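Table S2 (continued). Query chain:
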Amino acid sequence: MNEQSQPAGETEIRERLEQRDFHEAFERLLRLYSGRVFHLSLSMLRNQTQAEDAAQEIFLRVWKGLPGYNGAASLSTWIYTIARNTCLTELKKRASRPTVSLDDVGFEGTLDHLPEMQTTDPETGVEMDVHHMLQRLPEKYRRVLTLFYLEQKSYDQVGALLGLPLGTVKTFLYRARKELMATNKRALPAAV
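Corresponding output:
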């Protein structure tokens, strides 16, 4: 990968790694990717606390893997692959744990008290809570949308990170946008 196509800040991190200054490389890497890794984890796990825990686990794995990082892939691809795999492992663990049904008597009526949609009403109109809207999408659409728009990955990068062909990435993005627009229309108040 040439330096022109590397994300801002990645060049300095690579230089630190070449100098075997792992501590400084990790500090810079943490500043550059912590928010992005958290948002990816949140989009996959759908739980803030679990996403925070996953982000810590991801950076622990990154720290342990830094001496073996060979530079074959960009740092962002390497980190996102670790993040994706860590989240998928957590999802598998979660699936094997017993869960509580929302139909249980203890949860009756609780969902009725939750706000349907968080909104603000600035002079420009109604703004929807992006994360709430993403939660309404199927997992496959949410991951593609998060990587493409929130993490600003290219079609090819999204495909590589998720193991999807380019056409599937584009299809998922199209369908996700269409579903978001339909959700947005249902959430807006009717015109007077």
